[in-house]
Amino acid sequence: MELVIILAVAVLLFGGKKIPELAKGLGEGIKNFKHALKEEESKPEEKKQA
């Protein structure tokens, strides 16, 4: 029920056309964040030497 209310408020604030753009940007941001985390996990040797 809470999700429906949140979605309704988002539609009212941003309009129906803007929401897909916001979702795309959010998805790309999450993807880049996860990619950066994986890069850091694969390079532990460099941190130990410093």
Question: Structural class of the helix and strand makeup?
Answer: mainly alpha
Largest sheet: none
The coarse overall form would be elongated
Helix content: over 70%
GO biological process, one term: protein transport by the Tat complex
Family: Belongs to the TatA/E family.
Main location: membrane
Subunit structure: Forms a complex with TatC.
Walk me through what this model shows:
By secondary structure, this protein is mainly alpha-helical. The chain has one domain. It contains 3 helices and no strands. The radius of gyration is 18 Å and the shape is elongated. The N and C termini lie far apart (51 Å). 0% of the residues are buried.
Outline of this structure?
By secondary structure, the protein is an all-alpha fold. The protein has three helices and no strands. The radius of gyration is 18 Å and the shape is elongated.
Which SSEs are present, and which pair or pack?
Elements: H1 2-14, H2 18-41, H3 44-49
Features:
mainly alpha, 50 residues, elongated
